[in-house]
Write a structure and sequence with these properties.
The complex is a heterodimer of chains A (189) and B (581). Chain A is α+β, with helices and mostly antiparallel strands. Helix content of chain A is 24%, strand content 13%. Chain B has 17 helices and 24 strands. Chain B is an alpha+beta fold. Chain B starts with 11 loop residues before the first helix and ends in a 6-residue tail after the last helix. In chain B, 26% of the residues lie in helices and 18% in strands. Classes of the chains: A alpha+beta (189), B alpha+beta (581). At the A-B interface, α4 and β2 of A face loops of B.
Chain lengths: 189, 581
Amino acid sequence: MAKVTKLTRPTLNKSDEVYLIGIFKGTLVTLKHAFKSLVGKSRGSESLKSSGLGVTMQYPEEKWDDELPEYYRGAPALVTDEQDRERCVSCQLCEFICPPKAIKIIPGEIPEGDEWAKVEKKPKEFEIDMIRCIYCGLCEEVCPEQAIYLRKDYAITGTSREEMVHDKERLYEIGGKRVGLVNKWNNLK
Amino acid sequence: MSDTPTTTKLLPKDEAAEKGLVNVQIDGNWIQVPRGTRMIEACKIAEKEVPHYCYHPKLTSPGNCRMCLVQMGMPPRPAPGADPVFGDDGYQEIGWMPRPVIACANTVAENMGIKTSGDLVEKTREGVMEFLLINHPLDCPICDQAGECSLQEFSVEHGRGQSRFVEDKIKKPKNVDIGPRINLDDERCIMCSRCIRFMDEVADDAVLGFSERGTHTTVTCHPDRRLDSNYGMNTIDLCPVGALTSKDFRFQMRVWFLKETKSIDVNCGTGCNTTVWTRGNQVYRVTPRRNDDVNSEWMPDSHRLAFHEVQGENRLTDPMIKVDGKHEITDWNTAINSAADALKEFESSEVAIIASARQTNEELFLTQGLADTIGTENVATVERTGEPDGKLISADRNPNTNGAKLLLGDSTAKLATIKDGLNDGSIKALIVLNEDLFEEANFSHDDLAGAELIISSHIIANKTAHASDIVLPGASFAEKRGSMVNVTGRLQRLNQAIQPSGNSKEDWEIIRDLILAINGESNDMYMIEDVVKMIAENVTEFNGLTFSKIGDQGTQLIETGVEIPLLTKERERAAAGIIVG
């Protein structure tokens, strides 16, 4: 059982009740920060890598991209392995799990004679509608082939609905190569 | 004789024996099942699931997968001279055997006990599953069976979850082309031999067999043959794992996306019961559905793949009117009204209707209504015959010949009369419903030259549609509801799986609209149930029938005396005790 601490309201004396002193103290703090921001010493400027003038991050001139944590969930993308093989085998589990139904896959067969013919299956078309995507990461979690990852790209914009649909080519462009994953389709397979 | 004091109460075994039954205790509950029932079937009656791979009620039971192991017990044999001891409930005490037995190939006996759960059974199943999975490649992500795979299901239910096998798995041939419609993956095979037995016992084309020994055992096709039987694709449905997969359905769609609709096959008079698998507005596959009075559990490959035709490029999707020798797309109101106006130009005896035994009963009934509205007696249907295959494919390639006979009378003979009428000029207008005159009806362009007006309804573009003045696009078997009567006289139901393609429309609505446009009355039939109701009121054989009364398994409407050869053979085998049936 979590420990429950009961808090009692503080008893206020006469000077506290008129609030004037509190307001005055608060104003002093505000004025201190206002002054610092004018002389280029605003608080948090180091971590924001800003000039220190003003307290607002000047997006998009200033970005926090380097500060994004490893687990950040940006745009979902497909990845290739060390040998440039498409990891996706179009099992369509991500299409099934996707809560907003953003993913559309048309499976295809890897033709005989191809270097990776033993994998048999790869996506013919793979589309993610980024207007629908809610960045939940379930596709990454469900993938049995470690083929889809949520990357750090968050500024997904476009001027038309069609542009907002990421096709297979675009998805591999965002995803790139990912090394050090399970090599399921090894020589023993 | 309860008043005679000498009569004692009958023991349960004697009560059961009078009815030809035996008492079996399944998981603690006593039930009575017919003598000779397999233990696995008795468990099914008791609603206890016994997992199994090789057992199939329509095939022999070799008992080689060992998945159906259960614990069995019998009363101990009394010592010489001693009498069996019956408890208060009238049953003997069961002595449980220390080793499990297979439930699929053993039959029940009086006072037998079966345990489908418990330590021994669960441990056994876990062991069997572990051995089955030793060499299994685990390529579920690329396997078409995933989602309907018994190995997946039982592995979750009875498996141990993790593999202890550290050695390399046995390599076997993968993606083998063993037939024109079937692919074989030997690594996925669990040696249940269902496909081998099916090809031998049902398809009468024993091309499959086991080769090699031990863990290297593989299912193989005879080296000089291919799995090309017209019943070969049934092995795909039979295969409990993904060893045999369909080339046609290969990588098309994962099965968990597909919606199942119960329907019937419309390619011959047998009317095999089917399941239509769809996603969105597309049919992905058609599989047979069990009906012991029609198709057992099988269907021919040719009929299974016939659905592609109605999804092809030649599909008619819009009503069209011919203007200056060229078809132009129009809307339904214009098409129906101009058809009605054009028909009014002719004397009623100058109009002939060529209907089809491929139409549903509802459409045929309305076709008769259309003939009555016009006032013509020239209503014909086209006979369509082929070579029967001695199994499921009937010589009659029309799915609803008996329905046409019931609703239109004997109409096939009138086809010649109409042809003559066209040639001597007594018939000038033709309404063709769902029938290509150039194909089965053997009409020539010269015959049709006499027709000043041709109105036709089709699903796919053909020569008759090309020659027509007004073309009305109809709905395919998957896009409409209706009923049909098969060769044995069984009334069966078609269910709608998808929406009619493009602007095409359900055929009964087309005929209804045409009738209304001709007689100028207002519509009072909004649902196909209204038509069914009218048929039930007007046709003796259909009295009291509704769609829901037909049911998923159909209902016997008339007796035609026709037998389906495959069922005859199956019943003989069941009677001989070779299969459960």
